[in-house]
Write a structure and sequence with these properties.
Helices cover about 35% and strands about 20% of the residues. With about 375 residues, it is of the alpha/beta class.
Length: about 375
């Protein structure tokens, strides 16, 4: 297959992670990087053998040899850079969440539709072995009619910057737009939306918290004004419901993993690192009037599917899938649509907190405004 030439915009923590992922994809070639910190961009380019370096993303997206760009910036920079790249004729892969608000995300999808270019959002949980097994069981009718799901995400005490990693930009609304919900919750909520068929949202309620102590000097210097814990309840059209809890920091030993309930069976998804999936994924059903709690050898499932199914490697990671879709090997999963609906839920929780009541999807959409930072 033809090699796909990529440009990376932003070489911070996330940008470096994306570069490492692309190095695992045979048909991907990073030919340029860009960062306002030109010295760091040059250091990264030298480290990874990337030939071209820019400090202005506008110069990078003018390159005719670049097929797609990867936007690895803070949340409120996603929309302006993504839209500019789409309008420059590039396909765009953007780090999660889709943007800082629903309105900015909507504008990104609109730009992709108008330009005829692909827009892909980084949602790594969609490519986990547990997600693949869950989708196969759901599509095979083994859960029956789906009626409720639970999204959970847990960190004991691991908030960006104030707990010793990352930068203050993760903890400020003006750059990150939100805290635990947008940083971690997007992965878990998007995973469930994907498995549920991305149902249409009707109403949302929720509350967010910042209650736990942190080092005072770090709190002051970070400008920490986002949530460390988010809770919510979502009603979808057709009667399906979802409850969620997402913690950057909480006095608790752990949460059970996310789950999906159906009339004929249920699933428990892992609430940990990807490598823990084979130990914690479970399927529950009643067989011959016997309640069954089943585990699955996800590693053998994955090995067999790679041996027998064409293009199975196109679902090994978000980057593998992106390159395969650009090559025309597989259709692109609707990650942008899923990410936009995830943002609708997240923004609905923030609005519910602000108003002190349940809100409708229409209210959230009508009230949503851009928080994008011009660049």
């Amino acid at each position: 297959m033809e090699t796909v030439k990529i440009g990376i915009i932003g070489v911070g923590q996330i940008g470096k992670q994306h570069i490492e992922k692309y190095r695992q994809v045979a048909d991907a070639q990073i030919i340029a990087v860009c960062d306002v910190n030109e010295a760091e961009a040059r250091r990264v380019a030298e480290q990874y053998g990337i030939p071209h370096v820019y400090s202005d993303y506008r110069e990078l997206i003018e390159r005719e040899d670049i097929v797609a760009v990867d936007v690895c910036l803070h949340n409120n920079f996603h929309a302006p850079v993504t839209i500019a790249a789409l309008q420059a004729g590039k396909h765009v892969y953007c780090e999660k969440p889709i943007a800082g608000t629903y309105e900015d995300g909507r504008r990104m999808l609109e730009a992709a539709e108008e330009t005829g270019k692909l827009l892909h959002i980084q949602l790594f949980t969609l490519y986990g072995k547990d997600t693949k097994a869950a989708k196969t069981l759901i599509d095979g009718g083994k859960l029956g009619r789906l009626y409720h799901a639970r999204s959970t995400g847990f960190r004991r005490r691991n908030r960006p910057y104030v707990d010793g990693y990352g930068t203050p930009f993760f903890t400020r609304k003006e750059t990150a737009a939100g805290g635990a919900l947008l940083d971690m919750g997007v992965y878990h909520v998007a995973q469930l939306l994907y498995l549920l068929g991305n149902p249409e949202v009707e109403r949302i309620s929720g509350k967010v918290y910042q209650e736990m102590a942190m080092l005072e000097e770090r709190k002051t210097s970070s400008g920490f004004n986002v949530e460390e814990l988010a809770t919510g309840f979502v009603r979808f059209k057709g009667g399906l419901t979802l409850d969620l809890i997402e913690a950057w920091s909480v006095h608790m030993g752990g949460f059970e993993g996310s789950s999906i309930l159906g009339s004929e069976g249920g699933l428990r998804l892992p609430n940990g690192l990807p490598g823990e999936a084979s130990q914690r994924f479970s399927y529950h059903s009643t067989v011959c009037d016997i309640d069954m709690d089943s585990t699955i050898d996800l590693d053998m499932m994955d090995l067999r599917w790679h041996r027998l199914r064409g293009n199975e490697d196109a679902y090994d990671s978000s980057q593998h899938h992106w390159i395969a879709a650009l090559q025309g090997r597989v259709p692109l999963l609707p990650t942008a649509d899923i990410a936009l609906r995830t943002m609708l839920i997240s923004e609905g929780i923030y609005l519910s907190e602000e108003l002190g009541r349940e809100v409708t999807a229409e209210e959230v959409i009508a009230r949503s405004s851009s928080t994008a930072i011009p660049v």
